[in-house]
Every structure is written in structure tokens, then in C-alpha cells.
Amino acid sequence: MELEPAILALVAALFAWQLVNWLRVLESSDLSYSQPITSLSLVSVLAFSVLFLGERLDALKILGIALIVAGVWFISRGPHHSTASAAAP
Questions:
Q1: What is the mean pLDDT of residues 22-37?
Q2: Which of 2, 17, 20, 34 matches a 20 to 30 Å C-alpha distance to 11?
Q3: What are phi and psi for residue 21, nearest 5 degrees?
Q4: Which of 46, 30, 42 is CA-nearest to residue 71?
Q5: How far is residue 85's CA from residue 89's CA, in Å, rounded to a whole number?
Q6: What is the pLDDT of residues 51-89, one digit of tens each?
Q7: How many angstroms from the chain centroid is the CA of residue 32?
Q8: What is d(CA 57, CA 64) in angstroms, rounded to the nearest whole number?
Q9: pLDDT at position 82, please?
């Protein structure tokens, strides 16, 4: 299977955009707060694979997703330090 050059360029551009976006997030937010939120990408990958690729959910996958969501929820409930919150009066 050969990749089309346009698709390869699109994927490279998306990766570059993701890197720039991540660096902007890190400029204004605490890493211990930002990093767990990126774990939600695992949830979206599973959801898309179930919807579009026919992936089957089992109890272990559901438990893993529940633990990821619970971890992100607990992290988001705690205090975090960011330049945005430090600038607020």
C-alpha cells in the first residue's frame, strides 16, 4: 500500500499543528494538570474504533476507560497553577 504524498503532507501538517498547540498549552498551564487531560485521547480513539472499525468492547476496556476518566476528573478537581489563573484578580 502506497501513501499518497498529499495525505502524507496533511498528516505531517497535523502533527506540526498538534505540537504548536501543545507548546501553547504548556506556556499557560501546569504540566501536572495538562498532561492527564491528554489521556482523554485514548477514550476518543476507542470510541471512534467502536463506531467506525467495529472494535468490540469488553469489561477490561470499559474498566480502563472508566479509570482514565476518573483520573482526569480527580486531577481537574484539584488546585493547579497556571499563568491564566495567576493573572486573574
A1: 80
A2: 34
A3: -60, -45
A4: 42
A5: 8
A6: 988 999 999 999 998 998 898 888 777 776 665 555 544
A7: 14
A8: 11
A9: 60
Looking at the chain, the number of H-run helices and the number of E-run strands are 5, 0
- On whether the CB atoms of residues 34 and 25 are closer than 8 A, the answer is yes
Choose among 77, 2, 3: nearest CA to 36: 77
Question: Cell numbers of 18, please?
Answer: 498538534
Do residues 72 and 36 make contact, with C-beta atoms less than 8 angstroms apart? yes
Model-wide pTM > 0.70: no
Cell of 85: 489563573
Task: Tell which residue, 25, 4, 3, 17, has the closest CA to residue 83.
Answer: 25
Phi, psi (rounded to 5 degrees) for 57: -90, 135
